[in-house]
Fold each of these.
Amino acid sequence: MRLPEAKRNGEAAHPGSRLPVSGASVDINRRRLRLLEGLLSRTDTADCAQLALSWLAEEFHIDRSLCLVRPLRDQSLATIAAHGLPSTATSTFAISLDDWSNPLVTALNNKRSNFFPAAHSSGDRRRRPSTPFEDSAFHVIPFGVSGLSADMFGLLLVAGVPALAGELDWYTNVLGQKLHEMLRQEMLNEGDRRQERERTLLYSIINAVTDPILLTDTEGRLFIANARALTLFTASEEESEGRRSAVRMNNMLLSSALSSKALEETGAARRELLLVNPVDGSDLLFELLSTVAGDPRHGTGVVSILRNVTDLRRASEEIEENYRKLRVAEVQARAESDRLNLIIDSVADPIVVTDAAGATSLMNEPAERLFTTPPRASAFEQRWVQTNDAHFSSFIAGMLVSADTRRVGEIGLIDPTSGEAMPVEAIAGKILSEHGELTAVVTILHDRREAIEKAKLYEQLKQASDLLERKVQTATADIVQQNELLRRQAIALEQASALKSQFLANMSHEFRTPLNAILGYTSMLLKGIAGPLAPPVERQISRVESNGRHLLTIISEILDISRIEAGRMPLQLSTFRIADVISEVRAELEPIILRSKLTVTVSLDKRLRPVRTDRQKLKQILLNLLTNALKFTHHGSITISARRVRGERTVAISVADTGIGIAPADQERIFEDFRQLDNSPTRAYGGTGLGLSICRRLAQMVNGRLTVESQLRKGSMFTLTLPVQGRR
Amino acid sequence: MKATKKKANRPRVLLVDDYSDAREMYGEYLEYSGYDVIEAANGIEALQRAVDDKPDIILMDLSLPVMDGWEATRRLKADERTAGIPVVALTGHALAGISDGAREAGCDSFVTKPCLPEDLVLEIKRVLKSAPSSPVVRRSRTYVKTIG
């Protein structure tokens, strides 16, 4: 506060003293200069005001003063400097310009100074404004830029006498101009900053817009562009060639789109513009909105906003595609539904579709027959249909309240056409929506009458089949038993056969012993050892002898067969010449040959080599064959031949005769046991009929074969074929 | 053969058979054919007669009571007093293996019954001829089967 200082400096400055007069004008000019210099050196309004008030105290001895200024865009006057007044009163002192009743405001508006004398009563106080001067007298002097009436912006309040105001004109003028200048400067600075902030904000806003925004002239030259637009339409020298050419292309496209001609032609401000994305070269489709902005100062400009509709286009295409698909799907669904209806109708079993409330929404024809009354239905039919409906409804109701999604049950319906009981199997399934809500219940009814009938038949069939099976089992068991019996019998038979063979062997020995004596004595009798015999006796003894020999042959042959069958005739292999065996056989039968008067020739293959086989058995076969040939041949010849069979390791030995021969039908039978073709008791030929049977068995034992070729009354040829190397 | 009937020069045949008819028949014919015949009905008896009477040849039936022909032959051949006497086996058994058994027992010849007396005499002659009163007759073994 300058008050104490003023007191210090302000000697002789007492209230109500008169101001110095013009008598000292030189002095005044000097002091005024000092004020002007002080004001010039100040840059702050408060400092200026304070300096001015101090100067006033010094020059005019005004010990108390106050300066109020209207700050920019403010509707009040605020204290900026005070002199000789308590700071508590001045620091908050302000005057609202809206307070028209305030005499200070009136003074400012009227640009007229005013004097308020000291108040002495409460009435005086009511007539004057409340100021830091309280009850003491003060002047109110408005100040501003002289000549400009509108620019009154401050009040100067000074204590003092009424005549003082006119003397302060210069002072208020100088201070007013100075403060006005400073305030204006402040105001300008403030305006610049605001403009800058607004510009930045504006740019931030347009840059924040993702759509490119441009201000161009009508030729398409760029004035202002936001960041998104810059990437499309500008490229520095450092950018790649591809990006720069894309930018050039975009500029060309934009210019042609924005040319005044194009604008006039299309008329509309909305057009599509296809640009190139400089980043990746892809196509970008924009919707161009252009507005021509006329500005008298900068000429006509065009504001363009480009909205990227590439995605939009794609989206709209997709929507179109989806719509198309939807249409197709709808058609398919309708076809599906038609087909489904067709299928449902073609099913012979009744099908009923019920909605979630239990009401029937669909049924096929067989179901209609059960649950709807036909026109001209009889009372019976109507009642049966109602009964069916009731039964079915109760089934569905049970299904609806239960948690099962599937239910199989049996419903006793009535066939409305015949009135007979119709048990049906009902298979019901719930149809649930995606969210698990029940949408429908589908029930298929299956007539059980046929199945029941079938089951009955099946049961009968099963019983019959069981019966049959039991019978078969019994029969099978019988067969098994019989098989076992047969098996045992076979074993018993085998044993019996072995016993038989043993028995025959023993019997043969027992037969031989007496036969030996018979033959011996007969032989002796015929030799005449006991004296000569009368011819009839000799003939009779001869008969005894020949019968004895026949009996002996029978016994020997039976023995051979039984030995073969009992497996008691082992092979004895040796190597020998066939020619030797043939000559032995021939020699043994020489007496018979001589007696028969037949020619017996032997024909041997020169290539014959020794064979390895059972010599005894071969000899026995050949003896038998030659004996037979001699027996059954009455005239002609017998040929014994032996040859190698070409290509096979076998030899064939044949005995051919010109005898009685064998009919084709009998040719195999002659090899059977005890078989002579003439089986009558008076047969012409002796023999047991076992010879050939034994021969064939013996041939088999040495891996050989015995065959016959014969013609009745022409002769027979028996051939023995046997391997060169016998069995080992 | 109608040889001389001088008893002293006659070859002695020991005829062993349990069947008397056979013994008698062969004996009669052998006597008729000029042989001195002595007889035995079983194996033990045959051994005794062989030692006592020293036959030139023995006709041995194989199926004999008391001691069978095989055993008797083995013993004869084991006894040096009788080992040199040829033994002709006679049997009514025609089963295989019989002749092998006889050979093993030491028989010099084998004849299957029925055998006619004249055939038997032929065989005796043959055996005696191949070993004329020699004690070493074993080598000339032949086996004859008569009458098919």
Amino acid sequence: MTTPAADENLPELDLSWMNRRGPWDTHAKPGKYGLTLADIQVGEYGETPQQSQNLTGRSRGSPPRRAAMRIGGYTVRTKSDIWVENASFLYEEALQRQWSSATDVPWETIKPLPDDVEQAQCQLATFLTEVEFVAGDVPARWISVTTPDYFEARQVLLAQVMDESRHMDVFRKRALANGGGLMKATGATAGFVGGIDLSRDFTEMSSRLHISGEGAVLTIFRMGELMAYNDAEKAIYRLCAQDEARHVAFGVMHLRYMSQKAPERREEIDTYLDEAEGGMLTDAANPAGRLTQTSESLCILLGGGRDKFDEGFRKIVAIRRRQLQEYKKRVISAGFGERFENGRSRLNELMAQTAA
Amino acid sequence: MSEALCFPSVEWLNAVREVFNTTDSYRGAGGGQCDCTVGLKVDDEVFIVEFEGFGCSSVQTGTDFELGNVDFYIEMPMSQWQDMLENISGNGHAIGEYTLNTIDLGSEEGIAHSKHGDQYRQDLFVRYNQTLQFFFDASHRVDTTFENS
């Protein structure tokens, strides 16, 4: 109970914040996937600016505040620099298709392996742990410098970081699960993979990471079922391949968007692809590349032991061929197919060498 | 006891679809949201299977021409389909060399193809591989006979 005298001394309640709001009376409805980001693209909330002036972390659709500090310092503020048309969908898919390396891999199916096979498996696991560190670190840098107006793309990248984190842990677990351990670091984080982190532009990074780097690793993950010695390893590779395919999809869709909306940058993007193709077969970044400890471990795994190295080598040639074919088709899908027709790309030459 | 259904047929696929759509465990563990249209080619017979959201929304017969509209199609001779489904039936899920991905890798050209040549759409075979595996794994609860047996 209050006294009338006390109330008279109180300042009037200021509820002016109630009038400062974005578009009102929104009624987003859940669809067959639940209430997704796509379902809340309602009216102005769904409008993504071509250029963003948002430097303050303001949520898209929320009214600006004059006193706000420039907390973000965002450098990615042009839509075509980062956008993909199906970002919302990829994000929701990433959330829905998560898996646990602790409980969704039938670890009990791992049994002791011959020493050479276990060492090869551990070498490959060591390599993959290294490269997944990069695959997590690099997109993470770009999240914080992207305007919140493009939050859908940021969230896909956030989900990717989670995926890569799981890949790091699952290969580390595999290395430590069966009497082996980690092998000598391969140095895969130098050279081309390390160079991904030197990218000054998001599309430069994405073409290196998503299209060439992860595209190559995707083929390895797919082929992982051929070099798996138990259902646990098969599950690891299959589930990692799913995640990786989603990351590659982001890269393909981004390049496609960029090629349509910013055609003036096509020549520049071709330069990134030139560089990627140059290192595709030879660089340590590619586990199926030439003369690396990873390609030798792949030969042992694919062949079935050190004494069947040649048989494994024949299979690794098939992997290289498939990597190149799939890369080429993805680049075509992204809208840069003419490079294979006009003599700019050396990929056809590389494919011929691989077939020889 | 339910009547045995013949593979391949719409009736068989619908029975698998029912099991797949009503089994919660197929939505986790790397399964979940999936959007794609898949063709199945068994010798000369074609079926079109649609996945939407968290389930399989439809199955129907198709034509070779219609395979041009699907995201990708899985093509195997009847004997290979039968081997895969018998492995699943015997183990409750595919093991060893009988998972879809392993079968795909077992031949130079693979079993997952597209007529449109768009790698983005063909990659859906990999992106949704666990869901596709769960779908066929669901067939272990369907009493199955085979056309040629």
